[in-house]
Amino acid sequence: MKGQSSVRLVAIIVLLLPFLLGGCSDFFGKSSPEPSASEKSTDVPSPDPSNAPDSSGGVTAYLSAWERLDYEGMYALLSPFVKKDLTEEQFVKRYQKIYDALEVSNLVVTALPAEHQTSDGAGTEGTAVTGAGTAVKGFTYHVTMDTAEGSISFNNQGRVRKTVEDGVTSWLIDWNPSYIFPGMEEGDTVRIEKTQAVRGEIVDRNGNPLAVNVEAAQLGIVPSKLGDSADTVKASMAKKLGMAVQDIDRKLGASWVKPNLFVPIAVVVDDAVKDELVALPGVSAQKVMVRRYPLGEVAAHLIGYIGEINADELKMREAQGYKAGDMIGKAGLELTLETQLRGTSGKAAVIVDRSGVRKSVVAGQDAIDGATYKLTIDSALQQAIYEEVKADEASVAAIQPVTGEVLALLSSPSYDPNAFVQGVSKEQYQQWNEDPRHPFLNRFSRTYAPGSSFKVITAAIGIDSGALDPDRAKEISGLTWKKDSSWGKYYVKRVHDVNPVDLSQALVYSDNIYFAQTALAIGKKQFAAGAARFGIGEPLPLSYPLSASQLAGGGGAPSGDIQLADSGYGQGQVAMTTLHVAFAYSALANGGNIAYPQLSEADSAFAGKLWKEQAMSADTAERVKADLVKAVASPEGVGHGAYIAGASIAGKTGTAELKASKGTEGQENGWFVGFNADDPQLLISMMIENVQGRGGSRYVAPKVKRVFEQIK
């Protein structure tokens, strides 16, 4: 967890190394030593300040050259006492190394007026005389610059020394290392420190870990230490790590590898495995922080995983500070929340003394750790649902229907995201990638024909539009029906020959003909407008990217009567995610309203708000909800497989047929959507592919029932 993993990697780039100046190793040279008697540049032991030449011209010229980055011009204005221990090449190189490394730009250097001056022995208002009789004057200047580590701004002091050469008196710069940055002394260096931000973690509603940082062992090989045991060591490592020897050879054969370098092979979190392998010749381990996904395949598609940035990703994100070798979100929330989870690395230019001890920060910022995301997901519920569908090709969403909190979101079959962090083997990846059930496919992010689960929406639109009288029994004879001869050979088919049939019976027996006729009675325009009240045609307002639902191709209304009739029972071109179906049903438990979807604490601003107000009327919600309780409680009901004695489970089955034409065999996807009408704390929307030959939607209902029985 983060409390155990605040390990920061500090990359130190030394910008300034001490120069060897004769017998002196001081990079910066000496600060203007007092001259000997033979070096004195004035014949006057105690000059009269009132007669001293003006020193401002030399200061102005020096600061102007500095602002232009004219280092040679700056050096020409230094006093002889500086120059004797500091060559022009050394002086120029110092500034260039610092400024180039800091990427200095927009440099402005200005002299401060007299009222801002502080004297170094003397201010500009007067002249001091050193012990050796040499006159000096102080001046103060202001520096601002932009650097790669941020803006730098400071006031600093300098001084000029009176110099007489060939009878000409001048005031030259008495330079020392502190002119570069305040506080810099002989022997000090400037270096860049980089501090890696800790990636934010992801936890569930109860704080249980979903994506966390843990300490692990990076196992590697030093080729020169393998000796004659190379083949044996590689074979042992490969077997223990579940990888191929060829994978190890490929890593050892990289172009950068040298005999004495540590070559990373794999990351392990199991100490027993680490201890066993480091006992082998040439194998060693280094501590690293890695991402860990405690739920593994149970939440793989939702949480995703991170991996090393590839060339294409680097090209897109280089401007954001990414570099080769960085880890980046590859899928799921790790990808969606990459910017927030990644944080901001720290980077600073600091002054350090001869011992490497930091003295001061010239510019920069501390690392800002990534944000921790607390999801509304319930890990226990996610696990319970996954156990029911892990052998199926399924999409499942569970919500709190009144608050709008998403409690579970999963896709099956799945994969273990930890394998990608530790280094997935070629064989394992190939197995997943070639699996005909497509474990990498995120089914909950995709839309499917909702089949008969859509009949609830058709019923609500019909009642609220006045096109459907729920108490009037319709005369429907036989198992097939078509509007008229204009439909040719096309027809609508139902499973149970019930006649007459009202809304309650139509939901109990899931009568396709009843709802096809209802859709026609509503009409295309009104049907589309009613569906829009449920958000159909727009994406769910969540940070996680989900496909937008649709009523018909192109986002419009059904194109004709046949498509309209088919849409009435969730076929035609109707397509919805399991999560969107769940929110549509939530109106039944919420007085006809749909709460605003929430997936994390970041969505808490929407708590208590509505996404869709009065998707159906409150009276309609109560009527349809009561009918769905009957559809489960009745032994004849197609949803009876979800019946729990003592609980009022309201639910609806659905079987979506994917066929090339009527009368042919094809794939069938089974649905069940349900909640406890007396205590609407949990609503589950489950879709399982390929239920043909397994009882259709009747295969799904018992799975939802078992989840309800486990979660109290």
Question: Would you write up a description of this structure?
Answer:
With 712 residues, the protein is an alpha+beta fold. The protein folds into three domains: 15-187, Roll (Nuclear Transport Factor 2, Chain: A); 197-374, Alpha-Beta Complex (Penicillin-binding protein 2a (Domain 2)); 381-430 and 441-710, Beta-lactamase (3-Layer(aba) Sandwich). The strands form seven sheets. Strands 2, 3, 4, 5 and 6 form a five-stranded antiparallel β-sheet that branches. Helix 12 packs antiparallel against helix 22, helix 15 (455-465) crosses helix 17 (512-522) and helix 16 packs across helix 21 (618-633). The longest helix has 16 residues, at 618-633. Residues 1-53 and 117-126 have low confidence and may be disordered.
> Which stretches are low in confidence, meaning pLDDT under 50 for 5 or more residues running?
1-53, 117-126
Distance between the termini: 29 Å
Indicate the radius of gyration in whole angstroms: 38 Å
CATH topology of the largest domain: Beta-lactamase
Fraction of residues in β-strands: 15-25%
Let me know the largest β-sheet: 5 strands, antiparallel
Query: In percent, how helical is the residue content?
Result: 25-40%
- The level 1 CATH classification of the largest domain is Alpha Beta
Tell me the domain tally: 3
The SS-based structural class is: alpha+beta
Principal-axes shape call? elongated
Based on DSSP secondary structure assignment, what is the total number of beta strands?
25
CATH H-level superfamily of the largest domain: DD-peptidase/beta-lactamase superfamily
User: How confident overall, as mean pLDDT?
Assistant: 87
The CATH architecture designation of the largest domain is 3-Layer(aba) Sandwich
What's the tally of helices? 22
Subcellular location: Membrane
InterPro entries: Beta-lactam/transpept (IPR050515), Beta-lactam/transpept-like (IPR012338), MecA_N (IPR007887), NTF2-like_dom_sf (IPR032710), PBP_dimer (IPR005311), PBP_dimer_sf (IPR036138), PCN-bd_Tpept (IPR001460)
Domain Penicillin-binding protein transpeptidase: 395-708
Protein name: Penicillin-binding transpeptidase domain-containing protein
